[in-house]
Amino acid sequence: MNETLPASPPAWTPTTQQVEAARITQFMKWLGDTRGLAFDDYDALWRWSVENVDAFWCALWDWAQIPSREPRGAALADAGMPGARWFPGVELNYVERAFQLASDARPAIVSRSESGPMAGRTRELSWAELRRQVAACAATLRRMGVTRGDRVAAFLPNTPETVVAFLATASVGAIWSVCSPDMGPLAVLDRFRQIEPKVLFAVDGYRYGGKPHDRRELIHHLLRELPSVAHLVFVPQLDTDANVQEYPHATAWRDAIAGNVPLQIENVPFDHPLWIVYSSGTTGMPKAIVHSHGGIVVEHVKLTALHLDLSPGDRFHWYASTNWIMWNCQLGGLLAGATLCLYDGNPTYPDAQALWRFVGETGVTFFGAGAAYFQGCLKSGVEPRAAADLSRLRAVGSTGSPLPPEAYAWILEHVGPVWIDAISGGTDFAGCFLAGVPTLPVYLGEMQCRCLGARVEAFDEAGHARIDEVGELVCTAPMPSMPLYFWRDEANRRYRESYFDMFPGIWRHGDWLCITPRGGAIIYGRSDATINRHGIRMGTSELYRAVESVPEVLDSLVVDLEYLGRASSMPLFVVLRPGVELTDALAQRIRARVREALSARHVPDEIHQVEAVPRTLSGKKMEVPIKRLLLGQPLEKVANPDTMVNPESLAWFAAFARARGGVQ
After folding, report:
1. CA–CA separation, 377 and 373 (whole Å)
2. 492 or 642: which leads in pLDDT
3. Beta partners for 457?
4. Dist. CA 190–CA 193, nearest whole Å
5. What confidence tens digit (pLDDT) does each residue in 257-271 have?
6. How big is the CA angle at 589 (ends 584 and 591), to the nearest 5 degrees?
7. I need a surface site. Which of 465, 509, 568, 608 has the fewest CB within 10 A?
8. Domain 528-659: which CATH number of 3.90.380.10, 3.90.226.10, 3.30.300.30, 3.40.50.1100
9. Strands of 288-292's sheet, edge to edge?
10. For 507-529, what is each residue's pLDDT tens digit?
């Protein structure tokens, strides 16, 4: 797989003032003043950070003034992967850093939700009130017998109550885990049964797109199936007068956060578990991934301060649900002193510009969302600047899937001349491998840089690093936020199989990556969903870009099917604009566009119209599960509907597979 970028000017270039004001510029000046280090450009800084791992993470710690009980020593005690040991002897707590930069000159949280007593209206929570609620909730947890290492689970949406519950849990040294209330019972139980929580926070329901979803019966079901739960904290959203007494050992949210008590923060070792998150796998039990207090603090300080350029005074919004790791990363804005702006509900309700109005009305300065959201705005003809005053917005972030060049161009034309910070990372390590900095130019379709401290390469099949060629995304040095372990993973078997099977001792992430000669990066899709046509391999994102440039096509999914004893086949499935039917003429235009943009060998063998492309709760196209389904694996073994945003979309593909003799 080779890719040569055409010569093109940058689509956005920072001004001198923007470069001087950037936090990464401040960091580089600090390195010069305190370490005697000078760097000609970002690439030189990145190379120093990955070739001097201990020095970089110690410098970040000192620059950010991360609080801990004992002064830090060396950063890296053991560089093995998996199993690297960081900052031995240090004790700290995520919550202490979260409040370190607090100031009541600005709110801690600004939020809007379709649910709750203030549905549709903006709420503000001061830093002082956030601290009071966290302290009271932590005291409630202690009265319930929660101590260091206990698990606290939550069935909650993206609201301030969830932030309070998380910070309270972390402050006592307990381990947090959350599922969004739009998840089905099997998916929730597959996660929470593994970790045996002592306390469950749960919401009675939620509204999405104006429709109520009552979850009270589901709470009863969860309590029956989770015998480890000794206490329930009931958070009413649909019915503020709901009877908490119908549940055993239940405490109402208003009582859980009542009173004024000092915030007691339990210092824990650097590698003490902070939270458990889950892989977005579509088959088998979800991997319960454990991250550490210290690892998340230093990684998220680096991400938010240096790669998102957040500082006190910023208002940070990343549209996410609590199922997505971007919810966790959004919380990292607190570590930079920024105000969190939370939105709970359908971003296109009551109309396609609803989320943009929230961004404008709350004065968001950094707005992030999944790439699919921006592509949807482009296809729908949304005009953000006509809907809202975006004068304070200076940066737009994107992740979840590759952001195509035309989406970059749409943002710059219809949102404004903002810095576009496209990032790529994963739930696996709750961070980013690739991101941006506001001191570099932006090129259409290209992430600006490899992240500091992330020794990322594109490997060929022989394990050699390549530039300007597409290869496997690997990380050849440890990062502090890599998992401590998977919960109940004996001898780290699943952990090793997940990331270290192809290149022992080197993290293989599962994406196709090209490092450009100028130091940028392009993701070409998942490496396990590769198109291999006549010996030429290609990431699926290239084909999607071509297909979805056809005006009638809203979304698409392609799978390359290689059968034993039969000719291979590559069907393409397209979602078309309302009222549009797939005619022979339209199919020919789609084929012609693929032939023109890619090559004749990548023209799909057949094209089918579908109502929707199956997607995970984090918005990723389910290429591999559909491929497995069409190759003959049973539906129940390839996809879990409870982990999907649109499980009803599976029925069409299952019927299609049966008609082809694919489903066993």
Report:
1. 6
2. 492
3. 474
4. 6
5. 999 999 999 999 999
6. 95
7. 568
8. 3.30.300.30
9. 250-252, 231-235, 199-203, 151-155, 175-179, 273-278, 288-292, 485-486
10. 999 888 999 999 999 998 777 77
